[in-house]
C-alpha cells in the first residue's frame, strides 16, 4: 500500500483546523501562519511569513502576548492567556466588514496558548520556535455574559416587588435586620414608617382590581420620589401596605419625613369617590417608630411599634401620621 505523504497531510490539517496557528522563530519572525489567521487577521501567509510578528501587529508589543512569547523562547515556558483578563489582544475579526470598521468590541474573543516548540533531535543551540494557538471563544463569552445578566436580573427580581418595582417583603426583612444591627453597633438610631392606603378595599371593589393596581403603582412612585437618600428603603410590606426604613433618622426627623410623604400622596389628588371619610381622594395613614440608641436590637419590636402607631392612626380617623408612644418622651 502506498504511504500517504505525511507532510502534505499535516499541512492539510493546519489549514483545515478551526483555530489560528502562528509559529515564530527566536527573532519573532513568522515562519508559519495558517488559513484561519488569513481569514480573521486579513493577512495572507505570503504577507506574514518572514515578517516580525510585533511589526505585523504592533499593539502586541509590551503586552502579555510578547511576555509569553519571550518566556516560551527563552525559558521553554508554556502560557495560557485567560480570555477573562485579556479578551482580544490580537486584531482578529469575524469577517472583512468588521475588520474594516476596526471596532475593538467587534474583535473575536480569544483564548491563547503559547507553547515552546521542541523539534525532535534538534541540537541545543539549534533555532528555537514558539507556537501561538488562538481559539475563538466569542460564543462562550457571550453566553457567559448573558448568563451573568440573567443571574443579576433574577437576583433583582427576587428582591423587588413585581407590581410596583420597589423592594419586596423579602428585601425588607433582610434590610431591617441589617439596619437595626448596624444602629446598635454604631450606637445610632433607626426609624421605621408603616404606610397603609386608606379605604383601599372599596377603591378596589368599585374601580376594579386593575385600577387598584395602577393606584398602588402611583402611590409607590410618589413615596419613592420623595426619598432622596440612597440608604432609605421603601418596600411593599404586603397588599396595600408599604414600609420605609430610615437609617440614622431620629423620631423627629422620621415624623417630618412621614408628614411629607403623607402630604405628597394627598397632593396627587387620586379620586376615590367611595372613600368613607370626608375627603374623596386617596389618602394614607402612617405609623412612625424609632429604635433609640442603646435599645436592644430587635427588628420585631420596631415593626410592632410602627404597626401599633399605624393602627392608632387608622382608629383616629385615617389620613394622618401617628408616632409610637415611646417616641413622645
Ligand atoms: N388591586 C390590588 N389590590 C390589592 C392588592 N393587594 C391587596 N389588595 C387589596 O387591598 C385591600 C385591602 O383592604 P383592607 O385591608 O380591608 O383595608 P382598607 O379597605 O384599605 O381599609 P383601611 O386600611 O382600614 O383603611 C383588599 O381589597 C385587597 O384585595 C394588589 O396587589 N392589587
From TrEMBL:
Reactions accelerated catalytically: 2 GTP = 3',3'-c-di-GMP + 2 diphosphate
Gene3D superfamilies assigned: 3.30.70.270, PAS domain
Database matches in SUPFAM superfamilies: Nucleotide cyclase (SSF55073), PYP-like sensor domain (PAS domain) (SSF55785)
All copies of domain PAS, residue ranges: 6-76
Domain GGDEF: 188-326
GO cellular component, one term: plasma membrane
GO MF terms, alphabetically ordered: diguanylate cyclase activity
GO biological process: cell adhesion involved in single-species biofilm formation; negative regulation of bacterial-type flagellum-dependent cell motility; regulation of DNA-templated transcription
Protein name in the entry: diguanylate cyclase
Top class in the EC scheme: transferase
Pfam family, one: GGDEF
EC number, UniProt record: 2.7.7.65
PROSITE patterns: GGDEF, PAS
Domain of life: Bacteria
